[in-house]
Structures are given as structure tokens and as C-alpha cells.
Batch of 2 targets.
Target 1
Amino acid sequence: MPKYFNSNVVPEIPTGGKVFDLGCGRGTLIQEIINRRENSEIVGIDIKQAPEWNKIVGDKVRMEVVQEENFLSVLEREQPDVVTVTWVFHHMEYEQQKRYIGSLYKALKTGAVIVALEDSYSETLPPEAGQKRYEDFMKWDKENRQKIMGVLDWIANRIFSMRLSMPVPFAYRTLEDWKQVFEEAGFETLKMRFLGFPDDRDINNPQSLLVIRKP
Ligand SMILES: C[S@@+](CC[C@H](N)C(=O)[O-])C[C@H]1O[C@@H](n2cnc3c(N)ncnc32)[C@H](O)[C@@H]1O
């Protein structure tokens, strides 16, 4: 995971400003941002605390448990320059995704950037990796693609990571869908990348990345 973040996510995070990692989990991405030494401050939030938080130390980093009812006020208080959100949205129901994106739009300042990584495939862009897997995957219809992604994610969370309480609501969207949801909320899309199918992961769901800006 650190390697995947370093190749695909960290280079997309603007340097200099304060980063807010929404759904930071164990803090893997936060650790990589700290190691890069290019951002002034990092705040991680999640709906539950992870034991690994204790190992992430530094005067520029903070982690906090934040439930949905407090999300907007915490975001308004923090005023980050960048929000990172990796593999979080598909653990929310579709309507909850939209509420979070609505709160992000409401609270973020003009010019703030969101870097989102999701289990998601593109219907228009070629994959950056895993062409053969992509061709096999696209032979299924849309409904079955959702099911394949759900089953793989369920195995990843329940069996490999032993996360017994993590919701897996199968709330995937295509890259084009994500773009539309962000734009309907008022954001503009700076970049869309269909990263494709990573070779070196046990669970090989398609990956997409968006860089979004509050205009
Ligand atoms: C698959 S993990 C990803 C963790 C981390 N972002 C990473 O990339 O390693 C999904 C995380 O999203 C968190 N999450 C789910 N719903 C959330 C919400 N409404 N607000 C904040 N975090 C949430 C979960 O608790 C979990 O830590």
C-alpha cells in the first residue's frame, strides 16, 4: 500500500499546504505524506480510531475521531488546502457519499483541492495498467462488474484485513460518475486518471483517481 500511494497518490497532492485525510484508517497515507516533508500540517479523521495512530507522531500531525454529524463543523474549523480521500467513499451508501461531497463543497475555501482514490473503472479512458485484466473485466455487464468489485472488496476487508465491522455497501461508481457527482456539487475536475488494475495487489479491483478543485 505505501508503494501504491507513493507511485499514484502522493505525487498528486499539492505541496506546501495543510492536508486533511478523510477516512484515514491506519494512517498509511498520512505516514507517506509526513515522509515526503512537503506539507505544513496533516489532520487525519476517521469514524473510529486505529491502534496504529499512536505510532504516527510529529508536531505537524493530528488524528481525530469524527462522526458524520460533526464532519462539516470540523472541516470548517480546519480549513485545509487539500483533502485526500482514499478508498473511503465506497464504504458509504450512495446518499452519504453525496452528503460528504456537499459538506466538502460548503466548507472548503476557493482553490482547495480534493485528491480521491477509489475502486472504480472508466468507461471512456484506457487503463494505465492491467490491459488484459481490463479486457476480461469489461466483458461482464455493468451489474456484474459491481458484483465482482463487491465480492473482492468483501474478501479484502473481512478476510484479509479482518475488519469485521466495515460496511461494504457495494456503492461503487465509474470514474465518469464520480466526476459528475463532484461537478453537480459545484466542484471542477482538474484531473481524471484510470489507474487500471494493479499487478502486485492480492485484491485486484480497478482503481481510479480524481483531482478536484473548489472554484
Ligand atoms: C478501506 S479503509 C481506507 C483507509 C485509508 N484511507 C487508506 O487508504 O488506507 C476505509 C476507511 O474509511 C473509514 N470511513 C468509513 N466511513 C467513514 C466516514 N463516514 N467518515 C470517515 N471515515 C470513514 C473507515 O473507518 C476506514 O478506516
Target 2
Amino acid sequence: MKDIRYIDGVSSITLNEETCIGCGMCLQVCPHAVFILVAKKARIDDRDGCMECGACAMNCPVDAVRVNPGVGCASLIIKRWLKGKNMPADSCCC
Ligand code: SF4
Ligand code: SF4
């Protein structure tokens, strides 16, 4: 998705292509089409499209994707404003 962007150059997303088994789950759940599948391995195709919702990391069966949802997830940031900085990263609604 090229029309809705977060901030360029700040996404914390990482992908371990060695660990990836090519299931395609990250492609299915990512709302911004950040990943593509190349030769049965996921690849980050649009890093700056990532808004750090955490859906890919949460759904990867082999833990090949890591992302810090506390950096870019607006829901989590707002919850931390309202309820305190100790809200865990997985308490957002993403
Ligand atoms: S964190 Fe969300 S937006 Fe970023 S790559 Fe994963 S699913 Fe896509
Ligand atoms: S969800 Fe994980 S294992 Fe599946 S394609 Fe994406 S990175 Fe690879």
C-alpha cells in the first residue's frame, strides 16, 4: 500500500530469511503489503510501508519476523499515554 505511509526510515522490522519457511502468513496479515515471497522465502519489499502493527511477527510460525510495536503503533502509544508507560507491547489492538 503506497498511499498510506508512516515515517520513512524508522521501522524496526527485521526478517530472518534463513528461519523463514515460506508459509506466506506475513503476506496475508500485513495491511501494507510490506512483504513479497521470492523463491519460497519472505522478503521485505517496502520497509517504509510498515507501520509496526506487529501482525506479521504475531502470526509467523517460526518467529522469523521481529518488530517493536511500541515505536510506531499509534494504538499502543495512545494507551501508554492514558494508562502509563508500563503497558506491555502486546496490549495494543493490532
Ligand atoms: S508490522 Fe504490520 S505493517 Fe509492518 S510488516 Fe508487519 S504486518 Fe506489515
Ligand atoms: S510468516 Fe514467517 S515463515 Fe511465513 S513467510 Fe512470513 S517470515 Fe516466512
